[in-house]
Automatic annotation (TrEMBL):
Job description of the protein: Binds amino acids.
Transmembrane segments: none
Keywords, in A-Z order: Repeat
MF (Gene Ontology): amino acid binding
InterPro entries: ACR1-12, ACT-like_dom_sf, ACT_dom
Domain of life of the organism encoding this protein: Eukaryota
Domain named ACT: residues: 74-150, 169-250, 402-482
Low complexity: compositionally biased ranges: 477-493
Pfam families xref list: ACT
Gene3D superfamilies linked to this entry: 3.30.70.260
Residue numbers spanned by region Disordered: 477-501
SUPFAM superfamilies according to UniProt: ACT-like
Naturally occurring in which organism (per UniProt): Oryza meridionalis
Protein name (database record): ACT domain-containing protein ACR
Amino acid sequence: MCLATQSDCPHGHRRERYPRLPRSMRDYIILDGGGEEEREDMLPYFDPEYENFSQRINPPRVCIDNSTCSDCTLVKVDSMNKNGILLEVVQVLSDLDLAISKAYITSDGGWFMDVFHVVDKQGQKVTDEKTIKHIEKALGPDSNLLGGAKGGSSPVGSVGMHSIGDHTAIELKGPDRTGLLSEVFAVLAELGCNVLAAEVWTHRARVACVVYVNDVASGQAVGDACRLSRIEHRLRLVLRGHTGGDGDGDDSPAHANFFSSGGAGSNTHVDRRLHQLMHADVDADDDDDGLDSHAIVSGEAGNVSAAEERPVVTVEHCEEKDYSVVNVKCRDRSKLLFDIVCTLTDMHYVVSHASVSSDGIYGIQELYIRRKDGRTLQKDEAGRVIKCLEAAISRRVSEGFTLELCGRDRVGLLSDVTRVLREHGLTVTRADVTTVGGQAINVFYVRDASGEPVDMKTIEGLRVQVGQTVMLNVKKVPSSPSSSSSAVAANAKTPRQPASGALSRTSFFSFGNLFAKLRA
């Protein structure tokens, strides 16, 4: 191509302001006498492949080590550092129901290196090939660990979303009361919505839940705007405790959001989303319903049982390394590290170093954190971190009984079951609901609405009413580590389901084994 730019080119070529070179080379050509329009192409050029170059030459690596320790499996992860990567790693392990007994975490200086000591639900090493392959796929070179998955989606943690198909996700938040869950499920059934999965948390007289539904007639997500508006209107009335009215008004504490399947909101990990929904209520708490942490440590608290259960959280400043150090000591349980890291991440703090260990029944965690701008916490920030972490840890603590139900799914099943619970004077403190292959798998954490111990006659009444159509397993949640769990078979003709392990106040039923059996 001729480089001449004059119209009297001796070769007869058409005029060119600059030769047709690659964009990156055009930036270095100086055009004499060119106007502003000619210099618009002179912006710096950045090759998009260069931005991911360091990730391609240093992909994340994961090693599953079953030979170093005799009583646990070591999961070693090293990768380039990025914001939120620790939460993603811990989320993968927590979704597989792996208990983290010890961990060493460092993510300073642009690199991320962690070692987790984990065991399965039976307290054994991780030897299941499917579980190992899942960890390698989720955290290894072919994972999206550095790709920036928005919202931290996880098919296992998202209440069985891998098996529920097209759906609409409904988020609800408001004041809790006895029978609320029954009313919510009754409204959804009345409006032609089939509940595919749900998770419900309650804490300090507040409730937050994420419910996945589809249309009963079509089996598809509810997409009609008018119908969604009608559903939202009815649910807001239920959350406010009204039996009538227009449901309008901005002063109500009720909250309802809708997301279609695949939307940004519905892809957020369900446990993380529930923490986010309840996080806004922390400021409203007077924090006078519990015991003072310092009184508990010094033994001045009157209620010894409550003192043992309350988490102790402190925040100190490390002058030498210029970090804020968060220390947590509480009764050890599953997903404890996830709840802590999730809360700190959503509060926009970065965990640079951490150590996790266990001392008998207690879990001990030490986390070195900074704000995203690199600064340490101010005094008022430290107080809020303590308050939010105490709330996040306490949300998974349940008392009373767990009711594990398994049976053929049908429209209105949840409405019927929760109605029976309400009629027997039981309030639901937590709920895990899902469907696999047409089977409804529901776990309800219940206690007496009056605060008194649950009468065994009430449990027998539940067995008679509910156990006729579904398999019901009732377990007592022990109030102390030495307490043992009790189970009642609800249907004599139905084989007893394998026990999911002794339940403590901080352990929760998992659908992992049941998923595998139903898929087989």
